[in-house]
Design a protein that fits this description.
five-stranded parallel β-sheet; Arc Repressor Mutant, subunit A; alpha/beta; single chain; 5 strands; 44% helix; Rossmann fold
């Protein structure tokens, strides 16, 4: 899977650690750097920058972030739902409203990654999942337990567990949240389906 490095620049501990936790759930995350001041931020090279709009103005952005063929993708962090500030639009590539729910934030981050030209699909080295494994992964992403899945598919719970072990071996993801993100990235499930299940 294409690996992406991120920088989160904010004076807010909550912004930095909360967003880092979300990004680390994405299997395409290579490294997440945190910076609370501009000096620290400038020492880091990352593919996508998340910058606190309360702390950074367009005029203060260094040339390395706004010019040249290798400039990073710049995402403004908005701590509210008042809309995107027009004065940032020409310089910043995207905005992320931090008041969104977790699932909405993940979906928005996925969209930013996709629109920025980064790959989201599994790397060739990963083994392909069988159709049965895809079905089970989809049900896991929708919040079903091993027992639920066994009843739905008319198989034993032991068989479900075996399939889940094979899924983990093939794609290298163990957590339910990680499997859910994988299922979303690979279009095995849609965000609105998950939202319907979690209500």
């Amino acid at each position: 899977m294409s690996q992406i490095s991120f920088l989160i620049f904010s004076g807010s501990y909550i912004f930095r650690t909360g967003l880092r936790s979300l990004l680390e759930e994405l299997e395409i995350t290579q490294k997440v750097y945190l910076a609370e001041d501009i000096d620290k931020a400038l020492k880091v090279q990352a593919d996508i920058l998340f910058l606190d709009t309360l702390q950074v103005s367009p005029a203060s952005l260094p040339a390395a972030w706004t010019e040249g063929p290798h400039k990073p993708v710049i995402v403004g962090l908005l701590p509210h739902t008042d809309g995107e500030p027009s004065e940032y639009r020409e310089i910043w590539d995207h905005f992320l409203d931090l008041s969104l729910t977790k699932s909405e934030l993940l979906e928005k981050i996925r969209r930013i990654i996709r629109e920025s030209g980064f790959e989201e699909h599994p790397a060739p080295r990963e083994e392909k999942l069988s159709e049965r494994e895809k079905t089970i992964l989809r049900l896991v992403a929708l919040g079903h337990t091993n027992r639920d899945i066994a009843e739905k598919l008319f198989i034993s719970t032991h068989t479900v567990i075996t399939h889940r072990k094979n899924i983990t071996r093939k794609i290298g993801i163990k957590t339910v949240s990680g499997l859910t993100v994988y299922a979303l990235l690979n279009h095995l499930v849609e965000m609105d389906e998950i939202q319907e299940q979690t209500g």
